[in-house]
Amino acid sequence: MRKIFSIILLAGLPATCMAQDSLIMRKISDEIMLHGKCYDDLRVLCKEVGHRLSGSPQAAKAVEWGLEAMQEAGADRAWLQPVNVPHWIRGKEQLKIEFEGSSDKVEIPILSLGNSQGTDGKLLAAGIVMANNFEELEKMPDEAVKDKVVFFNYRFRQDLLHTFHGYVDAGPYRWRGPSVASAKGASAVIIRSVSTGIDDFPHTGSMHYADDVAKIPAVAIGNSSADMLEQKCKTGNVTAYLTSECRMLKDSVRSYNVIGEIEGSVYPNKVVLVGGHLDSWDAGDGAHDDGAGCVQSIEVIRAFKKLGIKPRYTVRAVLFMNEENGLRGGYAYDDSATARGEEHIFAIESDAGGFSPRGFSLAMEDDKARQIRYYRELFKPYGLYDFEQKGGGADISPLHRHGVPAAGLRPDPQRYFDLHHTANDVFEQVNHRELKLGAVAMTQLIYLISNYGLK
Amino acid sequence: MRKIFSIILLAGLPATCMAQDSLIMRKISDEIMLHGKCYDDLRVLCKEVGHRLSGSPQAAKAVEWGLEAMQEAGADRAWLQPVNVPHWIRGKEQLKIEFEGSSDKVEIPILSLGNSQGTDGKLLAAGIVMANNFEELEKMPDEAVKDKVVFFNYRFRQDLLHTFHGYVDAGPYRWRGPSVASAKGASAVIIRSVSTGIDDFPHTGSMHYADDVAKIPAVAIGNSSADMLEQKCKTGNVTAYLTSECRMLKDSVRSYNVIGEIEGSVYPNKVVLVGGHLDSWDAGDGAHDDGAGCVQSIEVIRAFKKLGIKPRYTVRAVLFMNEENGLRGGYAYDDSATARGEEHIFAIESDAGGFSPRGFSLAMEDDKARQIRYYRELFKPYGLYDFEQKGGGADISPLHRHGVPAAGLRPDPQRYFDLHHTANDVFEQVNHRELKLGAVAMTQLIYLISNYGLK
Question: Under 8 Å CB-to-CB from B71, ≥6 apart: which residues?
Answer without folding.
Answer: B78, B260
